[in-house]
Amino acid sequence: MKALEREDLVTFISAALACTGQDEFYGDAVGQAVSIGFFHEYVLGNYRRMYAHCLAAGVNDFNRAAIIVNLLSTRAAAPSQSRAALVEEGQLIAAALRQLPPNRVYRVFERLVELRVTNRRTRRIVRDYLDARPEPELHAVKYRQRLAKIVAHFHLRLPGEEPDLLFCFAKMRRFQTPLFESFRRARYTQAAVYELPYTVAEGFAARHGIPRARFLAGIAPRLTHRERLRLQSAGRGIAAVEIEDAELSRRSLTRLAIYFLSLAPAERRLRFEVLDQAMRAAAARLVERAGLRLGRVALVADNSYSASGSAHKRNRPLALALATYYVLREASELFSAQWTAPPSSLCDLRAIGHTDLATPLLAALTQGPDLVVLLSDGYDNDPPGGAAELVRVFRARVDPERATALVHLNPVYDASDYATKGVDRAMVTLGIRDVEGLPTLLSFARFIDGNATLAELQARLEHQARAFVSRGGRRA
């Protein structure tokens, strides 16, 4: 029974690390949402306390938001919980909200409004979050309609001119708050549009019919570094929104890898020295912060056509493979990388061809590494099942003592199997969303491998939960 409980939990955590409820190469958003939604209900109903602890286990923002909604909307379903457990649950929720991006937080609160959740605990959590907002005026403008619904539903009070902006906007002739006044004037004049933050101004630009190129050129001075990178990575960059080399040092390795792959091969070559240095530096910071030190490591990276991802996650699987390449190279004493379709250089890296995992995996194993990391969606079709047979024979005949650790990182959730698709049971499979979570995933691998008991898993989750609450949700 305990083995089944352990398997349930680790499978859920792995799924919650990868699934984002969006289209994937082999599946659509509807199937993803239905499948992971069922999984959430199952774990919530059977392991509520550990379900709450998953907020601190590095699961992605999509699933963290779902956990918060489920916990807050099912309070009456857990009458047997001790007061201490409920207090801990509330602390975890508050800490997780501080770590989530504001847009997701407001979607969580809006969902609670739709579910008609009105209990005192939820009201207090929402009130405390709004009281501690770092940029309340920006939030009021950017999330005006959602915030109005939330405030009205929970009967909250906001300071200054925020209530006027939310509920009396049409009657106001002038605001004393500069941002609110710019927002009011932007309804009538194009000039005021460029006084607003990009995410707010974009809607007004469309409303006034401002051509996209002219709008981006005018709003460029107000773009944040993240917005510049996102525009370029989405292939919508314009000369006025070019990313300066100095800005690259502020970005995470995952975002840098996505940006790198968004560039044409010719531009990659032109800027490779700077981009390579930025990705190396980001990997070094990640490795140093996590204290990640590895011995002999071999990476098997899937850059077959399915690594191109979907319209919602363009090139993300390939970007994670590239980012993992930089992290493992930085953290290893001896490192080698095998690609399913080896590029002549990283500048030529692209998603192409069928998926042959067996050939690069065999090449990696023959080098006698301490650790083999496979980054792939798990679909092996050239030949089908080749990698699974290789792993099985390797574990049974060549390395029954498990001197070589085998870890499969999968960025894609398989909705039909309620899990991240694995290669073989003899190879640990974990979901991955961002390479910044790689050190945590490697330390978590033994729980997936069956080498740890349910009690050890519970102890680890409790330790992570205590640390998460003590940090107040700040990233380690």
Summarize the structure in words.
Helices cover 55% and strands 7% of the residues. It has 476 residues and is of the alpha/beta class. The protein has 2 domains: 2-242, no CATH class; 254-448, Rossmann fold (3-Layer(aba) Sandwich), CATH 3.40.50. Helix 5 (83-99) runs parallel beside helix 7 and helix 16 (253-262) packs antiparallel against helix 17 (265-290). The chain is globular and about 80 Å long.
Topology:
Blueprint: H1 2-18, H2 29-46, H3 48-53, H4 61-73, H5 83-99, H6 102-114, H7 120-131, H8 136-142, H9 144-154, H10 162-167, H11 178-185, H12 198-208, H13 212-219, H14 225-233, H15 245-248, H16 253-262, H17 265-290, E1 294-301, H18 316-331, E2 332-339, H19 358-365, E3 371-375, H20 386-398, E4 405-410, E5 413-414, E6 419-420, E7 428-431, H21 438-448, H22 454-470
Parallel strand pairs: 1-2, 1-3, 3-4, 4-7
Antiparallel strand pairs: 5-6
- The proportion of strand residues reads 5-15%
Rg of Cα set = 24 Å
Kindly report the spatial arrangement of strands forming the biggest sheet.
2-1-3-4-7
* Largest beta-sheet characterization: 5 strands, parallel
Distance between the termini: 34 Å
- Helix and strand content put the structural class at alpha/beta
Tally of individual helices? 22
Mean pLDDT: 87
Number of domains: 2
Oligomer: single chain
Helix proportion: 40-55%
